[in-house]
Design goal:
Elements (H helix, E strand, L loop, with lengths): L34 E5 H4 L5 E8 L10 E2 L4 E7 L3 E4 L2 E4 L5 E4 L7 E4 L6 E8 L5 E3 L6 E4 L5 E4 L7
Antiparallel strand pairs: 1-2, 2-9, 3-10, 4-7, 4-9, 5-6, 5-8, 10-11, 11-12
Length: 160
Amino acid sequence: MPNTEFPTAIIALDVAPRTKPSNYPEPFASRMAGREKRSLGDIFGLSNFGVNLTRLIPGAFSALRHAHSKQDEFVYILGGHPILVTDEGETSLSPGTCAGFRAGTGDGHQLVNRTNEDVLFLEVGDRTAGDSATYPDDDLKADSGTDGKWQFLHKDGTQY
């Protein structure tokens, strides 16, 4: 019997961008201006991993530099030339380049668009329960609740 609840195939750019640009609390959420995500995995009802088509306008960041305790992440550059920032330094990326971030390494990562053109990339991450994220450059840490929603705290454990 065919599945009528979810589509079989779509045009990725036809998916509406998320209405809320970031889950971060202020003052961090406003730093995500210029980032546009389309939740592709959700369109198909995927529950084990997420897939986003993300656009960064010039000057935008993919996320605060972060590392996950349990969730792996993968990015594939479709267009533009972002800079990958990790604990090891900076790496220039271009279309066709991919990068993976294993859970539990503590190696904070983010993409930065320092060019005058948009960057477009796919990001894939698993949805392992009980994940946490650390942010080495900011007074922030996050824990994923049983409902899958993130709770953001100061590094001393107090809430935002």
